[in-house]
Amino acid sequence: MSGSAIAMMFVGMIVIWGGLAASIWNAVKVTKQK
Amino acid sequence: MESREQWGTRAGFLLAAVGSAVGLGNIWRFPYVAYDNGGGAFFIPYLFALLTAGIPLLIMEFTMGHKYRGSAPLSYARMHKKTEWIGWWQVVIAFVISTYYSVIIAWALAYTYFAVGLQWGEDTGGFLMGEYLQRVDIVNGATIGSVGSIVPGVFIPLVLVWIISLGILFKGVKKGIERANRVFIPTLLVMFLMIVIRALTLEGAALGLEALFKPNWSKIASPGVWIGAYGQIFFSLSIAFAIMITYSSYLPRKSDINNNAFIAAFSNSSVELLAGFGVFAALGFMATQANVPIEEVATAGIGLAFVVFPEILNSFPGLNGLFGVLFFGSLVFAGLSSLISIIETFIAAVQDKFKVSRTKAVILGGGLSALVSMLYATQGGLFFLDAVDYFINNFGVALAGLVSVVTVAWFVKNLKPFQDHANQISDFRTGLWWRICLSVVTPAVLGYMFVLNLIDNLKNNYEGYPTTFLLYSGWGIVIATIIIGFILASLKWGAKDLDVKTYSEDKGVDK
After folding, report:
1. Which residue among B93, B216, B339, B422 is the one 20 to 30 A from B345 at the CA level?
2. Residue B495 confidence (pLDDT) above 80
3. How far apart are the C-alpha atoms of B491 and B312, rounded to whole Å?
């Protein structure tokens, strides 16, 4: 795989899966605080 | 009065919302759309569309259902009596979609069985159209629009699909939909992960991933790519056909609407990305085996699932049948969780308007949909399915989305009250960006997309189908959904139906 393809693959993974992880983490954090 | 049902837990609601959004389109549409629209560069318009249309629209629909606590027609009627027809229009669209969506799940169910022993043989395309669907033009030499006879191979799994779906819906929101999604979604994820991991370890997988992720930056300037991104987000999130309004109407009082929308939207995109890995790794394997470039094997939709994937499975190095069962089984689970949410829209609407029990609403709504779905289980069903699917999505769902967002933002001017409602109960608040996205960006993009599609379809008949056929199975269906919407909206509500029921302060349940 070329460098640009690998870079975009990681960008997609970080943003989309990271976005999901962050929103779930936020929900868990708020629930624990309550 | 019977109190409104509620989700048992927040996770239960989220799994149901994600189950609804994650459907067949995530698996067979997204990977090809991304590949065809700039590869890795597609992420830019895709994420932009997610943040400016997908998530704002989800928040709007979650808020509407939660605030007005009713099915889509009841929620619209409670917002403004004259907008009730939009709710019914969306519900009728959902009804139409349920009639053919169930049939595709039936195909997947049949293919789960065919995967054992790879019963489709070497000519997978010929098997699908000739042996399995017994297409009316191939087998009988009849013209498009002919119905032919019922195909037992489609009819039997279709009956099973309806028994499972309606069986779940009879049980209600908490004991039926929530419980089913608690099984469906984790099972789907595990099955799909197994396929993806296997696909990534196949020879040629890197070739496929290179095709999917290599950015073609020149494409990003093309308006078509942006429309493709908005279309993908819009059609894959189950918005604008009453589902999310219905599901959020079962939320308890204290519900974090904004964060729930982010979780649901990112979950949907996460599955799409995962599907991208699996599908293109497998296509890379196929291209390597056949010694052809990836563009010769890259495809989407029914062709990808029922023609190309069986071909890939034929040349798998081992455990072909098992991976076939996993692939088609995951299509069945993804489809069932979406189908249940689609049917629930009209069950809830019938219950609200006609004051009937859930059992009667399921028998009436689900039964009618099951009956109509038999049309697609005929030899000529594929052509009807193709036309109805195309028109109901591009001119039904897209127009209903445009009309609903314009109505809320510009006619009823309810964006600010909606935002205040969501912000009051959510962990984090949305700001001015949310109102700008819904009042300017989303209507502009949806409007542009709709006009482009309209011009294109007025110039050329979709797939070259005869005009008469498209008039009754495409345009006619789209217009009928609007007319039926108006008719159902003209029926009177009970005296206190349009009062929004309050929540008890302590338990978050109906008083």
Report:
1. B422
2. no
3. 53
pTM for the model: 0.93
For residue B392, CA distances in Å to B54, B245, B475 come to 19, 19, 9
Q: How far is CA B315 from CA A24, B127, B203, B277, B368, in A?
A: 39, 17, 11, 19, 42
Question: In the structure encoding, which two tokens stand for residue A12, read together?
Answer: 């997609």
At position B387, the amino acid (one-letter code) is A
A5 CB-near residues (< 8 Å, 6+ apart): B39, B40, B209, B210, B212, B213, B214, B215
Contact B369, B99 (CB under 8 A): yes
Q: What is the DSSP letter of B318?
A: S
Neighbours of B442 (CB within 10 A): 25
Cβ pair B251, B38 in contact under 8 A: no
The runs of H, that is alpha helices, within B171-242 are 179-200, 205-213, 223-236
Q: Do A16 and B213 make contact, defined as CB atoms within 8 angstroms?
A: no
Q: List pLDDT tens digits, range A1-34.
A: 899 999 999 999 999 999 999 999 998 888 888 7
User: In whole angstroms, what separates CA B19 from the centre of its chain?
Assistant: 10
What confidence category does residue B507 fall into, taking pLDDT thresholds of 50, 70 and 90? Answer: very low
Task: For residue range B216-275, list pLDDT tens digits in order.
Answer: 999 888 888 888 888 889 889 988 889 999 999 999 988 899 999 999 999 999 999 999
What is the nearest CA distance from A33 to chain B, expressed in angstroms? 11
**What is the ipTM score, two decimals?**
0.95
Distance CA B75, CA B357 (A): 19
Q: Which of the two residues, B108 and B501, has the higher pLDDT score? A: B108
For residue B263, what are its two tokens?
């979780």
Nearest residue, CB atoms, B266 vs list A1, A23, A30: A23
Q: What is the pLDDT of residue B61?
A: 96
CB of B40 less than 8 A from some CB of A: yes
Query: Cα–Cα distance between B67 and B335 in angstroms, integer?
Result: 29
Q: Does B216 touch chain A (CB under 8 A)?
A: no
Handedness of CA B287, B288, B291, B292 (dihedral sign): positive
Which residue stretches of B55-178 are H helix?
55-68, 72-79, 84-114, 124-126, 136-139, 152-170
Report the distance separating Cα B392 and Cα B236, nearest Å.
14
Is the confidence at residue B2, as pLDDT, over 70? no
B206, B259, B427: residue with CB nearest A1:
B206
The answer to whether residue B263 neighbours chain A at the CB level (below 8 Å) is yes
For range B278-286, the mean pLDDT: 92
